[in-house]
Amino acid sequence: MNLDTENEFSSIDQEDIRETLENIPDHINQAQTHVAESDIPRLYDVDHILINGMDEGHLAGELLCWYLREKMQIPIMVNSGETLPKWVDKHTLVLSLNYSGECLRTLSIFKEAYQKHCKLIGICSDGRLKKYCMHRHLPIVDLPHGYHSRFTILLLFFSSLFSLLRTGLLQSDLKQDIKECEGVLSNLSKSLNPKVDTKKNDAKKIAIKLKDSIPLVYGWNLFSPVAKHWVKQFNQNSKLISYVQLVPDSTDHGIVGLANQKVAKNFLSILFRDHHLETKEMKCHLNFLKSLTSEVTNQSIIIAPEGKSKLAKMISLLYLGDMISVYTAIYNDVNPAPTPILNQLHQKPL
Questions:
Q1: 215 shares a domain with 117
Q2: Which of 95, 184, 201, 269 has CA 20 to 30 A from 208's CA?
Q3: How far is Cα 274 from Cα 304, in angstroms, rounded to an integer?
């Protein structure tokens, strides 16, 4: 498939995922608008913040934790269990993130938090979560309809960020970071647009390199949730087997498997690098990985983020990953939208 041929592109992308991608840079403004229209109160007497969500909601929460770890005194974490931690109480703010509002696990935990008299904010577009909030007059950020859930991570992330600003629990001045993010996303949406030829389009170039390979994505620190998002998008959009490795854990055990060079040649490694953020120890790990994967895997690709702020760096890589995953699908003559195997799973009775 020629990624620069409009007719062929459209024949495969039958649900116009391209338009969804082009709208992603506007998710910052949409999140800000919908939070401003919500009835989120000022909050006091909060000792902990817990993010409740799965898939995009969970990853948006991880991004939030990494971004705010040096900006908030209040501990913030993502709930990874099927129930709430025992320490959660009336002094805990629980943000539940679920674009569709139909995730039963997210709703179950939200109900448990309500029973524990936690402070609550629901962030969704519809579904049972929205109804639950409305019937109990709980604060809710009512998101716009019509998006594929897998492309809503920025909408959920920024809705959470602006919600924390509204509560007064987050008091940092983020205007410069957010403005930079808007500029970076705007530039990327132009340079990575489907109308830009492959020779000048970095996302298309990487998509072509992924042909007949298994992506092995290495993340570290604030780029850990980014790496997880890339793998999820390769799975769902590109229909590729893909794996995430987190540094330094991967250099403790993950690299041992690469000793099987016959198998290692099936993998293409993707390594995020940012020399401004790498500590001396991390630089050592990443340099070693770069050398090893260049030798034993099919290909090794180094990718640097755009922007100066940590926020812009994370967001730029998220958007690049979305674009690459869709171009990879199109290049392999695969419609990026449907996920029939997930439909089978969801139809199974609980």
A1: no
A2: 184
A3: 6
- In which domain, by residue range, is 277 found? 196-331
Q: Residues 221, 253: one domain? A: yes
Domain assignment present for 59: yes
What does the alpha-carbon distance between residue 51 and residue 64 come to, in Å, rounded to a whole number? 9
Distance set, CA 267 to CA 204, 207, 217, 298 (Å) = 19, 14, 10, 6
Tens-level pLDDT at each residue, the chain (350 residues): 789 888 878 889 888 898 899 999 999 999 999 999 999 999 999 999 999 999 999 999 999 999 999 999 999 999 999 999 999 999 999 999 999 999 999 999 999 999 999 999 999 999 999 999 999 999 999 999 999 999 999 999 999 999 999 999 999 999 999 999 999 999 999 999 999 999 999 999 999 999 999 999 999 999 999 999 999 999 999 999 999 999 998 888 888 989 888 999 999 999 999 999 999 999 999 999 999 999 999 999 999 999 999 999 999 999 999 999 999 999 999 999 988 888 777 676 65
